[in-house]
């Protein structure tokens, strides 16, 4: 796993809609008893699709991907 931090989940904003779970290409996220959880954190590629797909803004990435 990379040294990058995992995206942060604000559970107070999360409405458990599952949009991020559907968007994640590596099945890193799951709703476990209606609570969003990183079930396979080692498989996170930091693509930020979870952050982009969340309608509530409950997921935030602490990094920015840039192109050189």
The poorly predicted ranges are none
Give the percentage of residues in beta strands: 15-25%
* Structural class computed from helices and strand pairing: alpha+beta
Output the number of helix runs: 2
* Total domains: 1
Oligomerization state of this entry? Answer: single chain
Task: Please tell me the CATH architecture by its name.
Answer: 2-Layer Sandwich
Q: What does the model show?
A:
The model has no long low-confidence stretch (mean pLDDT 90). The strands form two sheets. A two-stranded antiparallel ribbon has the order 1-4. Strands 2-3 form a two-stranded antiparallel ribbon. By secondary structure, the protein is of the alpha+beta class. It has two helices and four strands, in the order βαββαβ. The protein starts with 7 loop residues before the first strand and ends in an 8-residue tail after the last strand. It has one domain (8-58): Alpha-Beta Plaits, CATH 3.30.70.
In short:
The protein has 68 residues and is of the alpha+beta class. It has one domain: 2-Layer Sandwich (Alpha-Beta Plaits).
